[in-house]
Amino acid sequence: MKILVTGGAGFIGSNFVRYLLEVHPDDEVVNLDLLTYAGNLENLAGLEDAGNYRFVRGDIADAGLLDRLFGQGLDLVVNFAAESHVDRSIEDPGHFLNTNILGTQALLETARRYGVTRFLQISTDEVYGSLSEEEGGFTEESPAAPNSPYSASKAAADLLCRAYFKTYDLPVVVTRCSNNYGPYQFPEKLIPLFITNALADEPLPVYGDGLYVRDWIHVRDHCIALDQVLRNGKDGEIYNIGADEERTNLEITQVILDKLGKDKGLIRHVKDRPGHDRRYAIDSSKIQGELGWRPATGFRQGMMDTIDWYIRNEAWWNKIKSGEYRQYYERMYGNR
Ligand code: NAD
Ligand code: TYD
Fold this sequence. Notes:
Layout: E1 2-6, H1 11-23, E2 28-33, E3 53-57, H2 63-71, E4 76-79, H3 86-91, H4 93-114, E5 118-124, H5 149-168, E6 172-177, E7 179-181, H6 190-199, E8 204-207, E9 213-218, H7 219-232, E10 238-241, E11 246-248, H8 249-260, E12 267-270, H9 285-291, H10 299-312, H11 314-322, H12 324-333
Parallel strand pairs: 1-2, 1-4, 2-3, 4-5, 5-6, 6-10, 7-9, 8-12
Antiparallel strand pairs: 9-11
Helix pairs in contact: 1-7, 2-4, 4-5, 6-8
The structure holds nicotinamide-adenine-dinucleotide and thymidine-5'-diphosphate.
Thymidine-5'-diphosphate (TYD) binds near residues 190, 206, 214 and 273.
């Protein structure tokens, strides 16, 4: 199989490329990534010489480039490429529409013209909006009710996927996963930001009361689920993916502080995120029942392994945090 992975230099995409090459050595992977601030070829270090892997730098919204790539023959498409950070979408919403909506449409359109056997769109549970404490987890039937510019752009892309399936019979499948954690996550998201800040004895900016809830999954479990959906999922379907590990942000913070032997004094309750979704929780019984997928990594073990990874890979995150990202961080948190 020849597989186009977009956004494969980011957090989940790079873990997925590694997973594919490890588990399906006969597959051929083309990784198309624009290398925005979040894309990093160091996430793929060691793969450069693999005969069945090729990196192409480019934009998923560039129809001419897509034409050339698809013209060389592709069987499957897995679309991770996106602007992915809610806080950045609040700062600069317009930027999110180009990649997340127009880019996805350009990919769908090219996939339609050339014909692929599967188009897998990587979406998010954030398209469902927010849950109260009492409600059960989101199912695939929950209505889309996105609250941030990021989640609205992802929901729009999901609807385009639906339209390409209904109108053109393009074999599209959409997955909606909960919050991921693990190696190579850009240190702007909660877990890697707090681990790396704590390691450097820098403050941990907890938004509002810190009692917001996310449903956490180790990135490798997400990759295993995606591979199963890619090969065995049903056209036109949506599959929720989650590991049933709900935690408040303060609980996450405490796990990190305890493991690193750091003091609670590092916690700073800062101004809340506007429109902050209170709780996400995913009901993943459909993928479990239909495809037999189960999460394999428990939250505690996954967090210990992840914290150890950031301890071992200080050079990786130090380079990121001392560069352009430092200015962004000061702007975001300097006045909170
Ligand atoms: P990320 O920000 O780490 O990586 C995104 C990648 O896309 C980067 O390598 C970037 O360079 C690339 N990219 C951005 N714009 C591009 C463009 N126009 N053309 C080509 N490449 C482009 O994101 P992530 O956390 O790995 O998320 C990957 C996907 O998974 C996203 O679609 C996101 O919505 C979805 N998702 C993420 C999570 C999570 O917890 N991180 C959960 C559910 C779903
Ligand atoms: P984040 O990692 O940005 O993921 P998402 O918003 O897509 O769920 O945030 C996870 C949770 O952590 C969310 O409730 C916001 C909160 N948070 C903080 O309290 N402080 C921070 O510095 C960040 C980045 C997030």
